[in-house]
Amino acid sequence: TGLTPAHAEGKKVLNIAHRGASGYAPEHTMPSYKLGKQLGGDYTEIDIQMTKDGQLINMHDETLDRTTNGTGAVKDHTLAEIKKLDAGSWFNHTYPQLAQSRYVGLKVPTLDEVIDHFGQSTNYYIETKSPDVYPGMEEKLLQTLDAHGLLTPKALQEKQVIIQSFSADSLKKIHKMNPHIPLIQLLWYEGEGKGKITGKEIHEIKKYAYGVGPNFSKIDRHYVHKVRHHGLDIHPYTINDPQQMNQAIEWGVTGIFTNYPDQLKKMVHR
Ligand code: G3P
Ligand code: CA
Questions:
Q1: How many domains does the chain divide into?
Q2: Domain assignment present for 1
Q3: Residue 150's domain spans which residues?
Q4: Most exposed residue of 58, 134, 168, 169, measured as fewest CB within 10 angstroms of its CB?
Q5: Which ligand is nearest to the CA of 164?
Q6: What is the pLDDT of residues 111-132, one digit of tens each?
Q7: Cα–ligand 1 centroid distance for 238 (angstroms)
Q8: Does ipTM top 0.90?
Q9: Does the C-beta of 164 come closer than 6 Å to ligand 1?
Q10: Which residue positions in the chain have pLDDT lower than 70?
Q11: Residue with CA closest to ligand 1 atom 7
């Protein structure tokens, strides 16, 4: 079937800076987000977790252990406690060739602080992480976005914010609260062979989301064509290899999550 790549239809392939430019700087820190934008990211990708006192912080894991010098669950710590932690030194230890002294002592940012800082100079691609663990997370997220003027008709129309989740329930809840927010259903395929999506699944997803975000390693041209023929966008994660970026673009994806937004920006067909 002759599906043309998104760029050939005049549609931009979204460059989504995954946890910021997290291939170069500690994920979910201000330097990583700033670099993501500088290197060509159209969207700043943010994973959110919620603290014991109900604040949204930007962190991938449910626990503090991997990316800070703290330990234990985010939900068992207050924001004040988390603000005392160092969210940069782990990166220097793990990637000595990329280490920078300015990363030592970086703070875990809140979602509010990051939107305060960047305002409308970037777009936000926010993931509700572990929503079952954090009752009220969706309400708090929408309040935060609203307070920053990111739920106005113009902001929604321009997709200044996209919300993504592996949890269909979380996305449906958000859709119910505000049906105009662009949503992406994340999908994870594992096991033998490539991932498959049925027409019925696509039909269900279309009721609340405008696209899907599958793991790139388990999809193929056929998968991309199928979801796009059914009218869904597709943003696979996480592509760091330039050849694979090219392949995905040629298949017709409409966005790519990458830790190296500069590599994606270099692609000719964008
Ligand atoms: O949000 C897309 C991708 O980031 C999903 O996987 O684990 O990196 O959040 P993860
Ligand atoms: Ca994510």
A1: 1
A2: no
A3: 6-266
A4: 169
A5: 1
A6: 999 999 999 999 999 999 999 9
A7: 7
A8: yes
A9: yes
A10: 1-2, 10, 268-270
A11: 60
